Amino acid sequence: MPHSAHYRIDYVHNGADKSFYVSAETMSNAEAWHWAAVDSGVAQIPEISPRQDPDR
């Protein structure tokens, strides 16, 4: 398994400072924004349909 790093993501939502940690191999600015949106409840993690799941 490749080495993963831990990233701290800080953001402000509705005037409140928020932060959390995520473990990933790499983290781009776009991915950090995505995870901040998920953490704040603005975005959702999409579900994989049975057709898209390569393990099925």
Classify the beta-strand content into a percent band: 25-35%
Q: How widely separated are the two ends?
A: 22 Å
Instruction: Please identify the structural class as seen in this structure.
Output: alpha+beta
The ordered H/E elements are: EEH
What's the overall average pLDDT, rounded? Answer: 86
Poorly predicted runs: none
Task: Describe the sheet with the most strands.
Answer: 2 strands, antiparallel
For the CA atoms, what is the radius of gyration? 14 Å
- Put simply, the count of helices is 1
Shape: flat
Helix amount: 10-25%
Strand order of the largest sheet: 1-2
Highlighted features:
56 residues, alpha+beta, two-stranded antiparallel ribbon, 1 helix, flat
Explained architecture:
The protein has 56 residues and is α+β, with helices and mostly antiparallel strands. It has one helix at 29-40, and strands at residues 5-13, 16-24. The longest helix is centred in the middle third of the chain and has 12 residues, at 29-40. The two termini are 22 Å apart. The model has no long low-confidence stretch (mean pLDDT 86).
Compose a concise summary of this entry.
By secondary structure, the chain is of the alpha+beta class.
Question: Which helices and strands appear, and what pairs or packs with what?
Answer:
Layout (H helix, E strand, L loop, with lengths): L4 E9 L2 E9 L4 H12 L16
Antiparallel strand pairs: 1-2
